[in-house]
Amino acid sequence: MNRDMSVPEILNEAASLIRKGWTMNAEARDLNGNIVHVTSDDAVSFCVLGAIHRITYKALAFRGYMALAEFEGYVRSRLHGGSSISHWNDHIAKDQEAVAIALENCAKGYKE
């Protein structure tokens, strides 16, 4: 990404990535299920953290951290997600669509 994105834009873009492919117990995986770096051209599925990291890699790091903090608060307060986003993604989230919807709902409620 070469433009500055808002936190809701980041969260909605993460939801779009999750809808294309979701994973657990790794930030990103290739078509064969192997763990790859989030910026790899081979990455086709992402956990919540991996999706946000993919979108915000390099130039958008600060906004990425803001998006992660916002979503972590949302997970803890609204989804009873335990101790972290990773825990919620890997052990509590029901499925790919539930993850995408949670990201979109968090984006809708964001206030700058």
Please report which band the strand proportion falls in: under 5%, 5-15%, 15-25%, 25-35%, 35-45% or over 45%.
under 5%
Total strands: 2
| SSE ordering | HEEHHHH
Give the overall shape, derived from the CA principal axes.
Answer: globular
**Major sheet: order of its strands?**
1-2
Indicate the topology.
Blueprint: H1 7-20, E1 28-29, E2 45-46, H2 48-56, H3 61-78, H4 85-92, H5 96-108
Antiparallel strand pairs: 1-2
Summarize the structure.
This protein is mainly alpha-helical and 112 residues long. The chain has helices at residues 7-20, 48-56, 61-78, 85-92, 96-108; strands spanning 28-29, 45-46.
Walk me through this protein's architecture.
There is one protein chain. The protein is mostly helical and 112 residues long. It has one domain (7-108). 55% of the residues lie in helices and 4% in strands. It is built from five helices and two strands. It has helices spanning 7-20, 48-56, 61-78, 85-92, 96-108, and strands spanning 28-29, 45-46. It has a two-stranded antiparallel sheet with strand order 1-2. Helix 1 packs across helix 3 (61-78), helix 1 (7-20) packs antiparallel against helix 5 (96-108) and helix 3 crosses helix 5 (96-108). The longest helix has 18 residues, at 61-78. The mean pLDDT is 83.
